[in-house]
UniProtKB/TrEMBL annotation:
<feature type="domain" description="MPN">
    <location>
        <begin position="77"/>
        <end position="198"/>
    </location>
</feature>
<protein>
    <recommendedName>
        <fullName>MPN domain-containing protein</fullName>
    </recommendedName>
</protein>
<dbReference type="InterPro" id="IPR037518">
    <property type="entry name" value="MPN"/>
</dbReference>
<dbReference type="InterPro" id="IPR025657">
    <property type="entry name" value="RadC_JAB"/>
</dbReference>
<dbReference type="Pfam" id="PF04002">
    <property type="entry name" value="RadC"/>
</dbReference>
<dbReference type="GO" id="GO:0046872">
    <property type="term" value="F:metal ion binding"/>
</dbReference>
<dbReference type="InterPro" id="IPR001405">
    <property type="entry name" value="UPF0758"/>
</dbReference>
<dbReference type="GO" id="GO:0008237">
    <property type="term" value="F:metallopeptidase activity"/>
</dbReference>
<keyword id="KW-0862">Zinc</keyword>
<keyword id="KW-0378">Hydrolase</keyword>
<keyword id="KW-0482">Metalloprotease</keyword>
<keyword id="KW-0645">Protease</keyword>
<keyword id="KW-0479">Metal-binding</keyword>
<dbReference type="GO" id="GO:0006508">
    <property type="term" value="P:proteolysis"/>
</dbReference>
Length: 200
C-alpha cells in the first residue's frame, strides 16, 4: 500500500521515490499518513499533502526524516557527494532555488547547517561574505554547499560556475576548506568537485 502511495505521489521521480522508500525502511511510522485516507485522496488533496510535508518537518513527529535525526547527524561522515545528496534530499521539494551550507569539523562531521539564501525558480544570488561568516562563526574546519534545482536540470549554469570559482579562491585566502558545491534535483545530483577542475 505504501509503495503504491509513493508511486502516485511521485510518479516522475525515480531518485526521490527511492529516497522515500529508503526512509520507509528505516521509519515505518511514515505509514501512518498512508493509512489516514484513501490513496487517491492523498495523491490529489493539497491539504493532505501540506499536512504530510509539515509532519515531515516537525522534529517531534514520527514522520521526521531519518537523515535529519540528531543521532545520524553526529555519526555521518560527509566524504562523498552521494551522502550529502541523500542527507539534503528534501531540498528537491522546494519550489525555489535554495543554498544550504553544511559546516564540518576536521573529520567531516556536521557541526551546523543553515539556509544561506533563497532565490527564484531559475536564479539565486550567492554572497561569499554570508557563507564564510557562518562557517567561521561555527568554528568550522570546512564546508559544503548544497543547492536545489527546481527546474529539474541538475547541472549548474554559467553563473553557478562563476560563483563556485570565486568561492574556491576566497576559501584559499581565508584558509577554510571548501569541500564541494553539490546540486540536487529529482533525478540525481551533480558534484562540481567531481565534475569540474575548479579546485585544481
Amino acid at each position: 500500500m505504501v509503495n503504491e502511495f509513493i508511486h502516485l505521489l511521485l510518479p516522475e521521480s525515480k531518485w526521490l521515490k527511492a529516497g522515500f522508500s529508503w526512509c520507509l525502511e528505516l521509519k515505518p511510522e511514515i505509514t501512518l499518513f498512508a493509512q489516514t485516507t484513501t490513496l487517491a485522496h492523498q495523491a490529489t488533496c493539497p491539504a493532505c499533502l501540506k499536512n504530510f510535508m509539515a509532519a515531515k518537518a516537525d522534529s517531534g513527529h514520527p514522520l521526521r526524516e531519518y537523515s535529519q535525526s540528531d543521532a545520524l547527524r553526529q555519526s555521518l561522515v560527509f566524504n562523498t557527494p552521494e551522502i550529502v545528496a541523500r542527507f539534503c534530499r528534501s531540498m528537491v521539494l522546494e519550489p525555489q532555488r535554495q543554498l544550504e551550507c553544511l559546516v564540518l569539523n576536521v573529520k567531516r562531521r556536521l557541526i551546523a547547517k543553515k539556509t544561506i539564501t533563497v532565490g527564484t525558480l531559475t536564479s539565486i544570488l550567492i554572497h561569499p561574505r554570508e557563507i564564510f561568516h557562518f562557517v567561521i562563526s561555527q568554528n568550522g574546519h570546512g564546508f559544503i554547499l548544497v543547492q536545489n534545482q527546481p527546474s529539474g536540470e541538475v547541472e549548474p549554469d554559467a553563473e553557478d560556475f562563476k560563483a563556485t570559482k570565486n568561492l574556491v579562491k576566497c576559501s584559499e585566502l581565508i584558509q577554510v576548506e571548501f569541500y564541494d558545491h553539490i546540486f540536487v534535483a529529482h533525478d540525481g545530483y551533480y558534484s562540481q568537485r567531481e565534475q569540474t577542475r575548479l579546485w585544481l
